[in-house]
């Protein structure tokens, strides 16, 4: 199924980074052929594909049964989507109730979920779903003006429709005014009342659902228990006022950013936009050999530096493909890369160099980035 998803996206002009392989390789796929293969050891993943076109970035997870996608992996997927300003999507085949139906949008922990047929229809035909699956059944959003015009053209009152649906006039009013989503069963009954086929009525009098809308909020929570050097770095960064995100099932160690923006959300949209544009997001590797014994230290340093070089090369390519505005950085203890300020153009900050001021830290990183 992963290959079917990739093929559908290739046909519609997306560039895809394929993380789904189990052989420690990542494929970067363009419109026609495989452009590049990178070797990187990625553990069990919260996503399989990152896809980018001129308008947006998608982060996609394929899983046969969407109910098996855990809260932990969902949280990581939401946070990585936040960092890359992208849209998370789950593509699956079924849930606990059976097969996922065509042209219906499901949801798993604030992430839109749908089957491949629906996803392909959106990509290739621009046919967006119109039915939501939510607790309590299936629902649609009525087109307020069109439905009201239809009702009035047939000289029917809210009470008339309510009587036929065995509902209160208030319930029908809330359906018509979009104060409440309409149960699909009631919507289909309305199609019979107004003598439309169900499909025709659905296409004329229900709203489409944009599957690319970001439903989520960042959870700001540490995903895993931190130990040793990770804990030290997290403490130092949060003391400086940064929000930190730690990952277990993503090919980066962590990310940190200014703790501004969300606090003023919904107060001033223009101000929000300015803050979002000025906020600095950093993606970081974290590494230490502090716990290595004296006899093993030289070997530990050599092995860790070799692994880091490989991973940093991947991070740089990863950032270039996504054209991300995130800043890459490597945070290390003082034993690693002692005489270097950057690796492959990505800044290195040693533990002793982390200042007591957030702006100074950002300046050091950006100066080394531009001076590499």
Low-confidence stretches: 261-277
Q: Which class of secondary structure composition applies to the elements?
A: alpha+beta
Q: Give the N-to-C terminal Cα separation.
A: 42 Å
H/E element sequence: HEEEEEHEEEEHEEHHHEHHHEEHEHEEEH
Count of strand segments: 18
Helix content: 25-40%
Notes on the protein architecture:
With 372 residues, the chain is an alpha+beta fold. It has 3 domains: 2-129, Trna Endonuclease, Chain: A, domain 1, CATH 3.40.1350; 138-205, Orthogonal Bundle (434 Repressor (Amino-terminal Domain)), CATH 1.10.260; 228-371. Helices cover 37% and strands 24% of the residues. The chain contains 12 helices and 18 strands. Strands 1, 2, 3, 4, 5, 6, 7, 8, 9, 10, 11 and 12 form a 12-stranded mixed β-sheet that branches. Strands 13-14-15-16-18-17 form a 6-stranded mixed β-sheet, with helices on both faces. Helix 5 (158-165) packs across helix 6. Mean pLDDT is 85; it is low at 261-277.
Briefly say what this structure is.
α5 packs across α6 (169-176).
What are the defining features of this structure?
alpha+beta, 372 residues, 18 strands, Trna Endonuclease, Chain: A, domain 1, 12-stranded mixed beta sheet, 434 Repressor (Amino-terminal Domain), 37% helix
């Amino acid at each position: 199924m992963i290959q079917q998803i990739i093929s559908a996206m290739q046909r519609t002009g997306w560039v895809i980074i394929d993380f789904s392989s189990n052989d420690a390789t990542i494929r970067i796929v363009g419109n026609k052929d495989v452009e590049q293969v990178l070797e990187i050891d990625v553990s069990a993943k919260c996503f399989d594909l990152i896809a980018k076109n001129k308008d947006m970035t998608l982060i996609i997870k394929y899983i046969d049964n969407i109910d098996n996608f855990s809260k932990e992996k969902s949280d990581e997927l939401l946070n990585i989507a936040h960092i890359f300003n992208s849209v998370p999507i789950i593509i699956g085949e079924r849930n606990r109730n059976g097969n996922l139906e065509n042209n219906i949008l499901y949801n798993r922990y604030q992430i839109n979920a749908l089957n491949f047929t629906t996803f392909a229809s959106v990509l290739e035909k621009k046919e967006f779903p119109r039915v939501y699956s939510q607790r309590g059944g299936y629902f649609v959003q009525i087109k307020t003006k069109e439905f009201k015009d239809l009702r009035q053209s047939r000289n029917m009152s809210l009470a008339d429709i309510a009587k036929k649906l065995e509902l209160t006039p208030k319930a029908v009013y809330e359906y018509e005014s979009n104060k409440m989503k309409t149960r699909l069963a009631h919507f289909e009954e309305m199609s019979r009342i107004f003598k439309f086929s169900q499909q025709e009525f659905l296409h004329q009098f229900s709203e489409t659902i944009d599957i690319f809308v970001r439903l989520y909020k960042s959870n700001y929570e540490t995903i895993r228990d931190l130990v040793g050097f990770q804990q030290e770095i997290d403490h130092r960064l949060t003391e400086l006022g940064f929000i930190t995100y730690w990952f277990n099932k993503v090919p980066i160690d962590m990310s940190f950013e200014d703790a501004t923006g969300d606090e003023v959300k919904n107060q001033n949209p223009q101000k929000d936009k300015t803050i979002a544009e000025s906020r600095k997001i950093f993606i970081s590797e974290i590494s230490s050999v502090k716990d290595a014994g004296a006899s093993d230290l030289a070997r530990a340093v050599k092995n860790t530096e070799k692994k880091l070089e490989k991973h940093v090369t991947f991070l740089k390519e990863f950032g270039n493909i996504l054209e991300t505005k995130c800043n890459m950085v490597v945070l290390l203890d003082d034993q690693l890369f002692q005489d270097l300020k950057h690796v492959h153009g990505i800044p290195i900050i040693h533990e002793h160099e982390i200042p007591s001021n957030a702006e100074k830290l950002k300046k050091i990183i950006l100066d080394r980035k531009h001076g590499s």
